[in-house]
Design goal:
Layout: E1 5-9, H1 16-30, E2 36-40, H2 46-52, E3 58-62, H3 79-84, E4 89-92, H4 95-100, H5 105-118, E5 121-126, H6 130-134, H7 138-149, E6 161-164, H8 178-191, E7 198-201, H9 209-213, E8 220-223, H10 230-237
Parallel strand pairs: 1-2, 1-8, 2-3, 3-4, 4-5, 5-6, 6-7, 7-8
The structure holds 2-phosphoglycolic acid.
Length: about 240
């Protein structure tokens, strides 16, 4: 049985003060949870988040990293830096990174290797656009992303978490039905040589998380909008 993992992706929201305020409400709400709970805030909030969750069952992650450990790379953050700041996780290859910041399957692989080398737990995102789904290309897109960004990890593949996030469901309020998500998860599982957790992401909310989590191949959720509110993400964690 794979342990459920509920991860929040705050994207570019919240200041350190807002981070502190969020955790003062959120930590008590999920303290009895048997699920893995992760929040990935903007880099500048990580210190506040780590301090506010010390001694709790909530872990902190970054939303991206660069694959070199240090150097003349203005604006970038490395795996060892994230680890030193108290982060344990990192999101890699989110569709917004692929769409707006030139992320490719090759850079996803570089970042994932760097995260593992630093001792971070990567959450690697894959997913098709609406046009790709409507053209019947969902499985071929997932296979290309998997073959380029994930499969070359070899034995290290067992150390990652995969997030299936259909691009058309992210921030749109259009959640994939549990059956649609299950079909994509089962397909990804069929490509996997080892047993890893596969999270669903895309408009997960307190009122749809239970249906999604009842599917056999859905092991958790990567949550954007609904993770910004402590009460709402508390309900998602305690589904
Ligand atoms: P959403 O975002 O929950 O706001 O749709 C999910 C994500 O981008 O990880």
């Amino acid at each position: 049985m794979r342990k459920p993992l509920l991860a929040g992706n705050w994207k570019m929201y919240k200041t350190p003060a807002e981070t502190k305020e969020f955790f003062s409400v959120f930590v008590p709400l999920v303290s009895a949870s048997a699920h893995d709970v992760v929040i990935c805030p903007p880099f500048i909030d990580i210190a506040a988040a780590v301090e506010a969750t010390a001694g709790s069952n909530v872990e902190i992650g970054g939303q991206n990293l660069y694959w070199k450990n240090e150097g003349a790379f203005t604006g970038e953050i490395s795996g060892p830096m994230l680890l030193a700041s108290g982060a344990k996780w990192v999101i890699i290859g989110h569709s917004e990174r692929r769409q707006f910041f030139g992320e490719t399957d090759a850079t996803v692989l570089d970042r994932t290797k760097a995260a593992l080398a630093a001792g971070l737990k990567p959450i690697v995102c894959v997913g098709e656009t609406l046009a790709e789904r409507e053209a019947g290309q969902t499985e071929s897109v997932l296979k290309t992303q998997f073959d380029g960004g994930i499969l070359p990890l070899g034995d290290d593949l067992a150390k990652i978490v995969i997030a299936y996030e259909p691009v058309w469901a992210i921030g749109t309020g259009k959640v994939a039905t549990p059956e649609m998500a299950q079909a994509a998860h089962a397909y990804l599982r069929s490509l996997l040589p080892v047993d890893v957790r596969i999270l669903y992401g895309g408009s997960v909310k307190p009122d749809n998380v239970t249906g999604l989590m009842s599917q056999p191949d859905i092991d958790g959720a990567l949550v954007g909008g609904a993770s910004l509110d402590a009460a709402s993400f508390g309900k998602v964690v305690n589904f």
